[in-house]
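Supplementary Data S3. Sequence and structure tokens for construct A.
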Amino acid sequence: MSYQKRVNYHAKFEPDGNYILHGTGQYDIYNQFDAYDRYRQALSKTPPLMSIAFIGLYNDIRYDIFAKLITTHVNSYASNSFILPQIGIEFCKGELAGSNYEKEVAEGKRDREIRLLMLAMKTIDRPIFMRPGYGFNGEWNGYDPVDYRLAFRRIKTIIDEVKCDNVSLVWSYNPAAIDKDYMKYYPGDDCVDWWGIDIFQTPEESAPYTYTFLADAEAHHKPVMLGEATAFRYGATLEGWQKWFVSFFNYIKDHPVIKAACYINWDWTKYAKWSGWGDCRIESNQDLTKLYRNEIKDPVWLNDTDRELIKKLLKYE
């Protein structure tokens, strides 16, 4: 099966032409960008362009240090490299029940933190994709739809105030959540650059909610980013290839509105909370690595191989 020709809506940092941004992660406070690095080593001829990280709006976080960590990471490769940070902004503390603070963001009580974060992001000379309150409909987050919408808009307002022109905002939905009514969380076309969706179960398991979401994204003329995806329950095995990866790639091939996809290259078995998800690291299975390499080498994938071409395609000056 071949890839359908991609749409072009000219959204902020949407690649111009028939391309899909290729990304992976994720950042860990202890191992930092190790998951990204190992995935990149496994796919050395088609290195990933985007790198996933996460941050919260807490008054005890040094955003300048966070920005320096990212800068050190993205500058650690060849001069022709141009890695793009993809950052999820939490509106709660690690999915802890009752820790959500989207209402405080909406009411302006976290403006200082947002401003410091965006000023720090301005120091990183490259496009940055941000997903405020990612998985907004997830019951594990507990976000109120009205407060969430206002919180998202508050972030957009401060981005404009401090002229943080290198940030593109992604509205990120999780179809695995109980609440499927995503539009009640929508902040509006005027402050959303991309629509986003997270894929853990296979797309077929999440249907029809993922297909409806993609159709609505097209109606709003917004490109879609698969902000997080991992071979949930199967891991990086040959069975996983047949039951998860084939479905995942076919899903991308069939939907031209998808213009970015990030795979979480993670060994979930090390964490009690997610141990049943499996070892999803591409490099952990040589046979799967070969199959994966063969898929990513399609020219539709925009990889980290040509700095000036990437800047041109994303219209980044």
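Construct B, processed identically:
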Amino acid sequence: MNVFRENNDALNAVLTVKINPDDYQNKVKAALEKYRKTAKIPGFRPGNVPFSFVQKQYGKSVLAEELNKICSEALYNFISENKLEVLGNPIPKADYTVVGDFENPSDFEFAFEIGLSPFFDLPISSRTNFDYPVVKIDKALVDKQVEDLRRRYGKLISVSVVGEKDMVIGKFEELNESGVIKENGISHSSTISLEFLDDKKICQLFIGKEVNDCLEIDPSKVSKGDKDKASLLGISESELVGLTDRFKFTVTEIKKMEMADLDTELFNKLFANGEVSSEEELRNRVSSDLEKMFAGDSERILTRDVYNYLLEETNMNFPKDFLRRWIKLSSEKPVTDEEIDTEFEAYLKSLKWQLIQTRIFKDNNIQVSQEDALNHTKGLLIGNYAQYGMPAPDDAELVETAKRLLTNKEQANTIYDQLAEKKLTDYFKSTVNLKTKEVSYDDFVAIASK
């Protein structure tokens, strides 16, 4: 058995596998003999089927199966031994007729096309500049975070007059064209949170109202989209079609959020073991936590920007005709040329990034080990316990739980992807020239939302 390579160009080649009888005869005979002993064929006792009968009935199909196995092994070994970087897998050469006779088997030749991975240079170095935005943690940002914490742990109390951030509970009643409550019309009690209304003019209509006060209002003005509007009125979305915008709203109750005091009770709810015992310590802790949180966001922005830069600036050619044929032949479900065309550019983009990432990992000896995955999973578990204010269990229990999670293929893939992205980010940070820019929270959100 021999394999020969013929290059069509830098990205396409043909591998010809030449197989002689010595390569397959014993394997075919052994396969037929095994089948003879196990086959259940009417008219013959198990194990007593004549070999000649089996050979006549199944010889060609067994020969084809064994030749296929030999070809697959030969191609794999040739590609491995010659360190060929191929895309996809070898596929039968188009418009090629197999050399050999299955009726009178002797020498056979099979030809396969392969697509070769393109040569490319990575366009990043210490001279490549990238902005690295970091959020300015100022007093206003800390004040807002502290207010959010106080609100989260506060309590709702009843008040007599509507304020600008209050929750107004009341009844919607559908009106007819004359402004009179419609008979058998919609009547439903709902809650409107003024704090989350975008239309400030609508908010002003509510401010100062008391229990039993009424106002005419369009439900669309106090909801966010059809789904929210339907929920507000207690109907299905389909019932919104042709619905009037005239509704009477009667205030039945007013709730105000009484924010939690900055005292020991709140500090103990937020942090364990007396870590924080004063407002000053709380603000320092909030500031520190915000820095850590936004540091991760800054890294994700950098990774996104470098990713886009590499895809844009890395020159890479592909054996497109080969890839189209390979996609068609390897797809689990039949696909048309039109379907391939629709998704092909997205596929090439994904393949391009895969090659870039593989190159970075290989050239810089970056690896994601099982130990890395185990430690990362343990860290995630500890974070989950901390989120609910619970102490983490001992290391032995953490290790056992982490190992169990990693046996789940989907969870394991997610964890390995997270680790790969983290290692990529670390590589980017150590390779390119970062220009740190301190920006406001709003500007940072705008940058992150690009």
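The first strand starts at residue 2 and ends at 7. The CA atoms of residues 86 and 116 lie 4 Å apart.
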